[in-house]
Design a protein that fits this description.
Number of helices: 9
Number of strands: 33
Largest sheet: 7 strands, mixed
Radius of gyration: 22 Å
Shape: globular
Strand order of the largest sheet: 5-4-1-6-12-8-13
Distance between the termini: 57 Å
Strand content: 25-35%
């Protein structure tokens, strides 16, 4: 039956519509790194590119199942306006993957709109001949070929296909002996891990002392594997007609990740959907993460891109195994070590040291500054003798002379006084 359905889909031309959901939605990111009310976390650099660019690049790079149109959904008119300007600029860059991208429309959803409701609103932007939606959450950073996700979707004749990736070491849920872990995500798969049987739990859920499994799922699945070491990162292939119908009929479905896809997983065993929910297992050598927190996700993903997955920087490595923009000025006896990335128009005075860190554009560093295992965002200023370890320094932040900061988040435009000592703190400008 599955092969017949797949053959039927191949017989009719597949017309895919890409969707990027750049909403605040399910992520507990916070606003410490945002300059003002018009700022969006999708504008923050991960590696050397804004988060939204990573999601768009993943769709625009498709070749076998090229999307005919891409819709970017932003939270509010102000964010949508900024996104339009950025996308136009990216499309004009000679080396950008977006130069050959299809039409990209940016639309504004009401502030606070949930991801499933935002996807429902995309129905009016989809062509009548659209058969498949390729949905990527705006905080996804990946080098997975999304053509492969759509191929898996077609071959399995699925109603939905969910990309599942192994959790990074820094994304582990904290556990305590004798207690159910709060926020744990449970993924139920069939024996050969080609089908998602159920999805439960998540960031907003209380600790689950027991999992409720449907009898219909147990009857239909000879053997089930329940995994907590993989997550649905936010890449989905969805049948357009069935998805829009479900969203119209079931208005209680608010979240794409926590409501809609689990709904399809449950309904596949009740015979109410044409196909099942397929699992696309991300290969171990591929990079696929959801940057849904500032620390650790944004910090660690940036460092991993610079150190291990530097092809995502879209710039060549130097002979020192790092990436430093030619416009950056480096003073006497200053060093930028392997596994680092430094964007354009930065200035380092004498005797600076940068190790295993990422520095965004337009940053200024005084003499004798030491940076390690950190992310320095656009326009930050770090004065003489400061030492920064394991930190995120927000856009436009100012670090005073001889400051020592460890494992901290320094908010956008925050000014740290000279000789201050920060240890595992989050400091932000009040009344932003």
């Amino acid at each position: 039956v599955t092969l017949c359905r797949a053959a039927s889909r191949f017989a009719r031309a597949m017309r895919a519509h890409g969707v990027v959901l750049a909403l605040e939605g399910d992520a507990p990111f916070g606003d410490a790194l945002l300059r003002d009310g018009d700022a969006s976390r999708y504008d923050l650099e991960c590696g050397m590119a804004p988060l939204a660019h990573h999601a768009l690049r993943a769709i625009a790079s498709m070749r076998r199942h090229r999307c005919e149109k891409i819709t970017v959904v932003c939270a509010g008119d102000a964010h949508a306006s900024v996104a339009r300007e950025r996308i136009e600029r990216w499309r004009g860059e000679p080396s950008s993957a977006l130069r050959e991208a299809p039409t990209i429309d940016v639309v504004a959803a009401d502030e606070g709109t949930d991801t499933a409701r935002a996807l429902a609103a995309c129905e009016r932007f989809a062509d009548e001949t659209t058969t498949t939606l390729l949905v990527v959450q705006g905080d996804v950073v990946t080098d997975v070929a999304l053509d492969d996700v759509l191929s898996t979707h077609l071959v399995n004749a699925a109603t939905a296909t969910c990309a599942l990736a192994k959790k990074r070491a820094w994304a582990k849920v904290e556990t305590k002996a004798g207690r159910a872990p709060k926020g744990m995500r449970y993924v139920g798969l069939n024996a050969d891990e080609t089908r998602v049987v159920f999805l439960a739990g998540g960031e907003h859920d209380e600790a689950k002392k027991r999992l409720k499994l449907q009898r219909s799922a147990l009857n239909a699945t000879a053997e089930m594997v329940i995994r907590t070491d993989v997550i649905d990162v936010g890449i989905y292939a969805l049948e357009a007609r069935e998805t829009f119908a479900a969203l119209r009929e079931k208005t209680h479905l608010k979240s794409l990740r926590f409501d809609l896809v689990p709904h399809f997983a449950a309904e596949q065993f009740r015979g109410t959907t044409a196909g099942g929910v397929a699992a696309y297992m991300v290969k171990p050598d591929k990079y696929c993460v959801a940057v849904d927190t500032a620390k650790p996700a944004l910090l660690e993903a940036s460092r991993e891109i610079a150190a291990e997955f530097h092809h995502l920087l879209e710039r060549p490595l130097s002979k020192y195994d790092n990436v430093v923009d030619p416009s950056t000025v480096i003073g006497a006896k200053s060093t930028i070590g392997p596994g680092c990335a430094v964007a354009g128009q930065c200035t380092f005075k004498d005797k600076c040291s940068v190790k295993k860190s990422v520095v965004a554009a337009d940053c200024v560093f005084g003499s004798g500054v030491k940076i390690s295992n950190s992310l320095i965002l656009r326009g930050a200023v770090v004065h003489d003798g400061a030492q920064i370890q394991g930190c995120i320094v927000g856009p436009g932040a100012v670090i005073g002379a001889r400051v020592t900061a460890k494992d901290s988040i320094i908010g956008a435009a925050y000014e740290v006084e000279e000789d201050a000592d920060l240890d595992a703190e989050t400091v932000v400008v009040q009344n932003k």
